[in-house]
Amino acid sequence: MVKRPPFEPATCATKPDCNAMGPQMLNLVSLLDLVCWGVCFWWMYRISQRQDSMLKELHQQARSIEELSRKEHEILKELHPTVQKIEESVDQVKESAQG
Asked: To the nearest whole percent, how much of the chain has pLDDT over 70?
């Protein structure tokens, strides 16, 4: 009977032709992963800054539009009685022209 050595699972340490770069490659991939996450977070931060500045501009534009609308409304209030007077005088001229 032939005596066999006990069973050992094959690992990189026990195989002579195994590439010894495994753990180093894993570290490189982990480092690359961290760098990609950092770039992603920086990118999202830049996008949010641009969105914030756009929102500020939109709020400022909305305020100026509201202010202009109020001024326009005040002007129209002042003109409305004048328009009524003009319409009355046009009606009087129209009646006198017809009569």
From this structure: 79
